[in-house]
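User: Can you predict the 3D structure for this chain?
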Amino acid sequence: MTAQREWYEKDYYAVLGVAQDAEPKEITKVYRKLARQSHPDARPGDAAAEERFKEISTAYDVLSDEAKRREYDEVRRLGPMGGGLGGNHFSTGGDSSSFNDLFQMFSGGRSRGGAGVGPRRGSDLETSLTLEFNDAIVGVTTSVYLTSDARCETCSGSGARPGTTAKSCGQCGGRGQVDDNQGVFSFASPCPRCGGRGNIVETPCGTCRGTGIEKRNREVKVRVPAGIADGQRIRLLGKGTPGRNGGPSGDLFVICHVGTNSLFGRDGDNLTVRVPITYPEAVLGADIDVPTLLGEKVTLRIKAGTQSGSRHRVKGRGIKTAKHQGDMIVTVEVAVPTSPSDDERSAIEALALIAASQPRENLHNSQ
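Assistant: Here is the predicted structure, written as structure tokens:
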């Protein structure tokens, strides 16, 4: 009921920016372009873009369905916003069924609860991709392998044996539906001969048996953007299962699983690394070499009196994404020898005798 009323007010052709006589392929092409621009995954946190995406999706849902589009065009032509009623008004008296009956009469469309006839979008698919830590940080182009429904390679999705073609259904005239006229009302249902496809395959393809779809192993290229995180999804438009009756294919969602690195860790867009230093370096200060993810080293200046466990930031040496450049966070740890040499032991004992500081003198007995 609400959706029917919205058809009077919403110009879905204007929403997608296409002409009223636009071909289905043009509508699908424009929709995919607009959907990529406004999809919430591409513009997280943008409420306006999310609302625009919903509006685009609603428009496409109607205009990509042949039967819905015919009904929509008829309602727009006959309804108050289309001027087809010549300025006259009608009242349903609060009875929604009266409006629905009137809607059916105007549209000459489907019976209530009937299944739509026309292009159907394919299903979305989901698969996993395991990445090395370094590949996830710098980005990589790789492949995923899956077994799924795909357009038949033998007949190119037509369902007809190579060298033959499908013929327009003689019962429905290629419309995919038949009408049952009952007085002022007209009800439509899928054509029983062609099953709503609008054509008849007289000589079916031997591979797909006339369906135009076969199950096969597929290799799909995936461009992994730099800085992708564990559990993040990549959406590949049109890489799902093929649509039916000329409908667009679904999408493929790739869930990324990122491995660990023996040296580096990750904190948001920052890389983390733990570097050991000697006791003299901590006390006196020093310039130390710190490894980076790409193999080269950077110099980090340790101030005199640096404490074990302290964190130091190296700007711009973290994870670079499309929107941000992270840093590298270096945690220094004083290395304590487990088997000191005789000379080391003698030096440490001498230091202990002359050490002026008492690190535990501020501790108080809790009793």
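The chain is about 25% helix and 25% strand. Residues 81-116 have pLDDT under 50 and may be disordered.
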